[in-house]
Request: fold
Amino acid sequence: MQRVYLDNNATTPLLPEVFEAMRPHFFEKFGNASSIHQQGQQAHAAIEGSRERLAELLNCRPAEVVFTSGGTEGDNLALFGMLQPGDHVITSAVEHHAVLNSCHRLEHMGCSVTYLPVNGRALIDPDDVRRALRSETKLISIMMANNETGVLQPVNEIGKIAAEADVYFHTDAVQAAGKVPIDVKEIGCDLLTISAHKIHGPQGAGALFVRKGTLLQPLFYGGRHERSRRAGTENLAGIAGLGKAAEIAHLGFRDGSVARLSQLRDRLEKTIVETVEQVAVNSGDAPRVPNTSNISFDCIEGEAMVIALDLKGLSVSTGAACSSGAIEPSHVLTAMGLSADRARGSIRFSLGKQNTSEDAEFALQLVPDVIARLREISPAYNKTHA
Amino acid sequence: MLNQTIAVAMSGGVDSSTVAAMLCQQGYPVVGLTLQLWNQRRLAGREGMPESVQGRCCSIDDVYDARHVAETLGIPYYVVNQEERFERDVVRPFVAEYLSGRTPIPCSLCNNHLKFDQLLTTARQIGAELLATGHYARNEFDERSGRWLLKRPADRSKDQTYFLFGLTQEQLSRTVFPLGDMNKADVREQAKRAGLRLFEKPDSQEICFIPGGDYKQFLDAYLDEQGEEVPDTAGELVTTTGELVGTHNGIHNFTVGQRKGLGVATGSPLYVLEIRGDQRQVVVGSDEELFSRTLRASRLNWITIEDVHEPMKVQAKIRHRHQPADAVIEKVGDDELLATFDQPQRAITPGQAVVFYAGDIVVGGGWIL
Reply:
């Protein structure tokens, strides 16, 4: 059975060049970068090479890049690394759980947290950020792009507010990297999280940008790796992959691959909206990353739709957090003010660089039929269409 | 039929796991579904409730087990979350029944609303017209009457038809019970041969949302969580002649036939005969007084017939662990049935189900008033 994968915001497949960049590090160039000998030097060189790629992607200095195990660790490091009991943090209601649950923990430990609401387009109002500032505010953490809707937050403005208030600014850019250009100077952030497996790199690798002069408490104690900011022998192959992925991501803005992605997403979205009745694109008119389309279908259980599509070969998601069987309505869609019904009937399509127009065609063949069948069975739909 | 996708309701137990394995072996395209009905962690640790929760039907561990079976068999597997509906259609009525002095059966409600309603709908939504479960029961289409029949299984000791009396014709037409002709030992043997490591897993006998089995603790913990008070229904313990013999601290603490917990010391043992909710009275009496020849039932579901138009001889079960007893049933109201037993039956309990059999065949059933 043909399978098409349109859930790239969950994770992405490696690009072949990324795997090729990783391969030598499994068997030949396998060393521990802290070792004095040849293998160590090779490993060290590879890691520093990747570090430079990240620096180019983010427009920062290589020394400002800390390698981590991924986005969650990066978010944790940014938050727990910067905050002490008594500090105040400003964040948003639509952050990834890595930020939200870290904030809950920080509250438990004696910090205070303000969770800013979003409007109907899932956007933060920078004025709300300003109004939430207090004397004890130490850090603002607002994501650059949302994983469920793809909406881009006004991080540049928030960066200015942070600078004026002399408060640190962290942004989770996990879903933004490779999709929109990132310039830490332009944003004005002090910390920024990247994850490899969202940009066609391997799972288990990521990076945290830490502006020079930012005093960060590490999460892991041990050796002096990453300038004593993150102990632990480096995930060499992972970092090599991340570096290559970052390079390709950066190139994507010039070689047409991101533009192509944008066109594909637009076509998919437009066709669905035109062929299927009673649909709405969630946050369609807010600034968005070019690969994501979150659409709600009236009178449909998103869960049933995902399963039905999966059984026919199409992989998408509801964008709702799933933890061991308990599926909660999306906190993001809820924060946007979507009714429970509409939130439950939402599907997220997220494209990656490996997707082709044939993939989009495949989806467009399946989706209207599945919707029609589900609606046929749906008592709610039949009530309004009897 | 072999190209028809069959969904299997997988609880993580040996029975439903074996069903999945058997259908795979027979070549059907199988999809595994687990209903996530109750978050076991919700009340854990509250006063009286167990701290940690071992595997009980549909707990997180059971989901892992079901998923592992699906992975072993190589079938698609999905968890369907119906916590909201379960709370609304099973848990809340359960609580309300106890607080009214009746003894509920949540498993029948779950079958009616979740397993054979919601799950059948979900199965259809994802392209499976048929749903297979691990229930010990049999169903078949009777050409003569043009109706689907529900019948007792080969393994009488595992007979679950008592809980399935509420199934409609439509539900029966889309359900498959592959274990109907097997006994438990055979099922475990099949599971073992299919390479399922849970073939020795003990059966779950309790109410799935009450780990530890103490329904009183559950009522307290649940109402507390909901910010509600356990209503004060303390009142009198009386005999059938109205004589006051003591007091009680709440009608939900009692069930018909109960002997313990009365707090009354007399010469001979006393049993709960009746719970009068509105008067907050618990009527107690001797063992002989527990016997009765009649009961009334409502909210009836008929399987072999459309309705009871004239008095009918059946065998009736008044609780799961009960030998079906000869009785005559007749309609006495729009939604009321009178059952008259040949022999007096012990501890007929309002809130329980009464299920009517004609030999092996389930005629229908209803809820005891």
